[in-house]
Amino acid sequence: MDFVFDRTADGRVLKCLTIVEDATHEAVAVEVERAISGLMLARVLDRLTLTRSLPKIIRTDNGNAFCGNAMVTWAHERGVELRLIEPGKPNQNAYVESFNGRLRDECLNEHWFTGLLQARTVIETWRREYNEERPKKALGGLTPADYARQLATQLT
Question: What is the model's pTM?
Answer without folding.
Answer: 0.94
